[in-house]
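Convert to structure. Protein one:
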Amino acid sequence: MSEPKEKDRGNDKKPDESGTADLIRELGMLSSGNQFRSDFQYLNIIGCVEGHTVLTPENKTTKYEHLIPEMIAVEENPEIKGLLLLLNTVGGDVEAGLALAELVAGISKPTVSLVIGGGHSIGIPLAVSADYSFVAKSATMTLHPIRTSGTVITAEPTFEYMKKTQDRVVDFIVEHSKADRTVIDEKMNCTTNMANDVGTLLFGPEAVEIGLINEVGSLHQALKKLRELSEKQEKEIDRKCKK
C-alpha cells in the first residue's frame, strides 16, 4: 500500500480540531466539551470591549456580539449550572459593556467574576454584574468619567447626554455592589490620583475595601465559590419541589 501523499498528512485531524481552532481564534476560549466535562461555562473578557465600531487590528479585543449567545446558552442549557467570568480588560464601548453586564446580571444560575490583571473603566460594571466577585491581589481597577471620541458638538444637550450615560454606569455599579454612590463619584472625579488624568486607580484590596468587589482571591477561590452557589441553588430547587 502506498504512503499517504505529503499534502494529505496535514488533513489527518480529528473532526473537532478545526472547530476548536476557530473557537480559540475568534473567542480566545476552549469549549469545555472538547477537553473535559464541566458543569460550568467559562467566559473571558480581555483587551478592549469592542462594540458597534470595529477597532484597528493592533487592538486586542473582545467582540460583544460573540459573547451574547454564549451567555444565552448559560441560561438555556440545562447541563450548565453556572458561569465564571474572567476579566482582564482596559474597558471599551460603554453600550456594549453595559449590555454584557446586564446579561450577566440577568442570568438565573449562579455567576462569579474574577478580575486578573485589570478590570478598568467599563470592566467595573462587568466585574460587579456577577452574583459574587473576586479580584486578584495584584490586579488593578480604574474608575474614571465617561470619555468620548470623534466630533463633539459643544452644546448643552451633548454634556447632558454624557452626564446621563455616566449616571447609567454609576447606577449599575451601586446596584450590583456594596459600594456607596458618594464614594464612587468621588473616586471617578478625583484629580490627584492619576497623572494627566481624572479618576482613581484601585488595587485589588482597595477595590474590596470600598465595597466594589466582594473578595480578594484567584481561580481556586472563584471556582470554589461558584460550586457553593450552585449546590445551594440545587438544594433550594429540591426543597421547593418537595413541597
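Protein two, convert as well:
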Amino acid sequence: MVTDKYVITIARGFGSGGRTIGKLLAKELGINYYDRELLRLASDESGINEALFERSDEQIRNSLLYRIARRAYKGEIIPPDSEDFISNDNLFNFQSKVIKELADQESCVIVGRCADYILKDRDDVVKIFVYAPLEDCVARIEDMYSLSKSELESKVIKINKRRAEYYKYFTGREWNNAENYDLCLNTHLFSFEKCIEIVKAYLKVRFD
C-alpha cells in the first residue's frame, strides 16, 4: 500500500463475529489489535485506576440517565482538580485520547469504543460494521451460555440495544446506520476468511 499507516475500526453486533474478524485481520496484516486493552492504556494515561474504567462501562450501560441523555463526544479532558475528573464522561474522554494517540502512532485494529466516530475526520481510517441475522448470532454464542434459544435471542437483542445506546450517548449518531461506515459486512453471507479478503481488497483499492 502507498500509505505507511492506517487504522481499522470495527463496530459489531453481538454474536456477529466482529471481534474474531478483528483479531484475525490484525494477525493477517501484522498490526496490533485493541479492544479491552484500551482500558489499561487509558488508565496509564490518566492515572485513574483501571477498575474505574471497567465499572464505568457497566454504569453507563445500565444507567437510566444514559438512556435519556445525549452528550456527543467533543474531546475535552476534564482536569484532575475538577470533581468530574473520574466521571463516566471523562473516563470516555481518556479512552478517546488514547485512541487518537494510537492512530497517530501506528497501524492497528480497534474494536468498539466508538472509535469510528472519534477518528471520523482522519483520512487513514477504515470504518467497518459487522452484523448478522439474529439466528446466526444465536448459533455463534449458544456454546458460551447455558440458556434456551429464546433466552439467547433476548440476550443478543439486549446487548445490541445497549451498544446502540452507548454509541448514541457519546456520538449523537445511530450505531447501525450504514452512512457511518466504509464497509458493512454480513457474516451470514461471508465467512470470516472472506470478510478478511474483502477488507484487504478494500485497503488495496483505497490506499494504493
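The first strand starts at residue 7 and ends at 12. The domain at 7-203 is CATH 3.40.50.300 (Rossmann fold).
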